Amino acid sequence: MSVKERRRLVVFGQVKAGGLSVAKAGRVLGISQRQARRIWRRYLEEGDAGLVHRLRGQKGNRQCPAGLREQAVRLYRQHYSDFGATLACEYLQERHSLAVQAQTLRRWLTAEGLWQRRRKSKPQRQRRARRACFGELVQLDGSEHDWFEGRGGLGLCCLMVMVDDATGLTYAQFFPSETTQAAMSVLGDWARAYGLPQALYPDRHSIHRRNDQEADEIEARTGKRPPTQFGRALSELGVGLIWAGSPQAKGRVERENGTLQDRLVKALRVEGIADLATANAYLRKTFLPALNRRFAQEPAQSIDLHRQMSEAELHRALVERQMRQVGQDQCVSYQGQILQLRPALGAASLAGKQVAVETTLEGQLQGRWKGGLVAHQPLPQRPPAAGVRPSLRQRLAGRGPAYKPAATHPWRGRVLPRRPLGMLIGAVNAVNAVSVHVQAPRYPIPADPPS
User: For position 1, what pLDDT does the model report?
Assistant: First the structure.
């Protein structure tokens, strides 16, 4: 089953247990009530297999004929380059007998870079009600503040805060700064304590959303924004990602930050805590349990929508992953380091293949090929290629200082040094002047010798 189908399995399992209605399950999964009822009937009749999509591996019933896309895009370029998709479809039908749906043509034009989405005006905001179930939506934010008031030589630190939208349950952890590793670490702690939520609601920080121009261009062409490392991890874990459009949109976690900047700062001062490790232990054992007992509330529906995930799956997803091409010497370069890969005995060579190099939350490097780990060894420098004789300079590198011929060496007289043209002309003029001066007589010579 895919990640989406496994998510449906958890939700409809709650429906089967009587905790959720079919309509509520549809709202949690983001589908209509009609589709939710249809999936529910298949689930009752066929069990888990009823949640698998029926069209998997089959061709679409409404697939366009071969060559229609190229012909439609070509005619659009030639005659209707400034038309909208709807109007262009009408002209293609009337003048060229090409029947294309407007949304299909719009998708083709977006992929070719001929159409950009017209943004509508921003809607008026209004207060949003809490989600009904625990684990349905969790808000995430990082708060940089002088939490220790200068004690222990610490300045600004980041407190990563997670707040459940339905109950207000809070979890937090200190880090030196707001980074991808910090976001993954706090998500992993939440998953181990409660499970994986259905969706996460952070801001548009570059950790959660790519904000560069290349990502904008890819989204304009394909309709999808490329994920960050954190977004890729959430996708592998089956957790939805919703970006907040403003600080007010995730006001629950923003107000929690204000509460913590008042209460937690004073609590750390009273306890005399001046380092991150002690502060994190105090948060887990004392401060957060007391805070949640006082301020957390019961959800509208007593249903837990968290999904349990094994430690191995969490450890595999919560990493920073980069693809690298393996050289002929079974080495890859990663962040200024050279890693010598050591495949298992009898395994195929990895030369020329793309291997994933991962950095775990503990800072360890590991290679992965087709889902399995590949042993590696860091090297101080890249070894010389096999079969290539080292140069004279490399062979003499360990034999003392290099020999430099003197200025009077015969080798230096065989080839004229390269000098600018102006210097050569000046040298020639000087030689001519000297030759004229030598040939001229110093004293007048009489024409005839005396008799």
Answer: 77
